[in-house]
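Attaching the record inline, Q. Sequence:
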Amino acid sequence: MWLALALYATRRIHAISNQMYCLSVAVFIFLTAPEVLHVVVVVSSRYSYIGAPSYQCVPEVALSYRFGKFLNPHYDYSITWTYNGCRLAGSTLILGATWIRIFQQWRGLRSLRQAGRISSLLLRDGTLDFMICLSLRVPILIGSHDSESRALIVAQSMAPLSSVLPAVIACRFALNLRQCAHQRYESAAWHEDASAWGDTVQFRALSEGQEQEAGEEGGREEADVELAALPRNTRGGDVSPA
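Structure, as predicted:
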């Protein structure tokens, strides 16, 4: 799941940042590095590599993890800071690129005096994703020096949400974006039909009062046309009809 979310975020940044490959690669590295680090830590805490003559991995009971923690008392803290720092850096890049793109769209739409729903979706979902990541990662970074810190305990209890909520937000954004595209397609089809009907005669049903008014107006127009068609006397008088 984390790889799919990283690819989705990378594709999103590539689309909204005018195809900036450097920014897309940076976001992908920041989002995948914590998971790769987690896999390395788990593997190194359970297995050790033996060289010649056997060349194999021997399972251990967290010997390398304890040994690394014994050599460096800040071993846990460095892993925690690296893991959550990469997450925050990736989310910050995503939010920054999203806000820049939204400002560009807002400025263009303001000049055209139009409203953009996609911009609001980008701003809402991008900000929501960043705020959730910030609220989950910052307490861990603050309380990582104290294993009994309340902030760390609360953040660790909410840690499962950090792996579920990004997927929910991504699905929500994709559905909203598809709905906006569908509404835009329907609006464009309606305008095409309206333009196709512009050169044709359109009939409309009239009520009884409207029919009476239309009949009176038609009678007056016929009388005016009939009077205009009568010949005139050379002396200035009108010739009465026979």
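Residues 2-187 form one domain. Residues 60-74, 189-206, 222-229, 238-242 have pLDDT under 50 and may be disordered.

More tomorrow.
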